[in-house]
Amino acid sequence: MESELKEMQARLETVPRSVLEHVIDVHCHPTDSDMAMTLRVAEQMPIRICAMATRRSDQRLVADLARAHPDKVTPCFGYHPWFAHWIALSPVVSKEEHYRALFLPPSPPPKPDLVAAFERLLPYLPDPTPIADILPELRESLETFPNAMLGEVGIDRACRVPYRRPADPPYSEYAPTHGDEDADGPRSLSPFTIPLEHQLGVLEAQLGLAVELGRNVSLHSVKCQAATGEVLDRMYRKHGERWLRISVDLHSCGLSAQTFRDIAKRHPNVFLSLSTVINARSPAHKDLIAACAPDRILVESDFHDVRCSAPYTWHMLQTIAEVKDWRVEDAWDADAPEDRWGAVRRLEENWRAFERGGHRPYVKRRQRRDRAIEEWEAENSESD
Ligand SMILES: [Zn+2]
């Protein structure tokens, strides 16, 4: 890891700052690391970043970082699926009852080893927070920053609840960065995953707020290909054109190329971003890049340390450029015509389209023909 980072850092140093300032890391977790260091390093950071929140204790840190560096940091507020069990969708009678309903449903009667695992886990779990308390705070955070996004939110079927008390920030000192392996070894993971239905309840409440406030979304999806498509379809049906006002980024997208293509076909507001840390573990990420329309792809680091955002984002940008056969700029030419755009300019324009939102619904071929005829008639009647 160390030498990999050094190599990336060395490559980054050959790129002029006038190019790097057009690069956007659309998904990272800088507030997972020590805040004094993060605030200091962000000052010198050559690129722009979208800083994610994940749970109640880091929403404020993201706000602090965005306030300190408004030109470089887009704040993202929201609740990550790994912590969805800490949120109660209905009024809480008792902590035990809340978690029992999630992890030990009464039928079929749970096996004794599962009951024992639950007894072991319960003391580590925090008192649940009702969603009715979470949503007004989230609304306030989003309204405080007109450019803020909703993130990181999503669904995850791989994540198991650890036998560990919730960490206080900076989390990076305790927690595994990402993925299903736990830093302390598999024995520190309980057998429990968070029921998908509960995760969907937490996610859809947050998405409703994003639609209402017209905010873009950074969406996590792990081992939930079908469910992810279904959530997006449900949102489109429920909110109609208002759904298309916002953009959704499938971050460190783990979907197959085919699933992404199908989703993109139904949802003109869905983008995809890739990271070296998560996606480059699988060679399939190059197929995904190839399958993604050139104007829907974004780049990210997903890193928990702000010092790694630029080198890792640049690394993925080079991978995308290679697969898409785009040149990478070595100098910045703001007036370059579109057919001369390099990877940095293309990805920056994609980010702008993402930020802007207001996507147009796809028009069915027949409607398109009818519309062309109408336009032709309108033009002709004007010239009469
Ligand atoms: Zn993330």
TrEMBL record:
It comes from the Eukaryota. Pfam families: TatD_DNase. SUPFAM superfamilies: Metallo-dependent hydrolases (SSF51556). InterPro entries: Metal_Hydrolase, Metallo-hydrolase/TatD-type, TatD-like. GO terms for molecular function: hydrolase activity, acting on ester bonds. This is TatD DNase family Scn1.
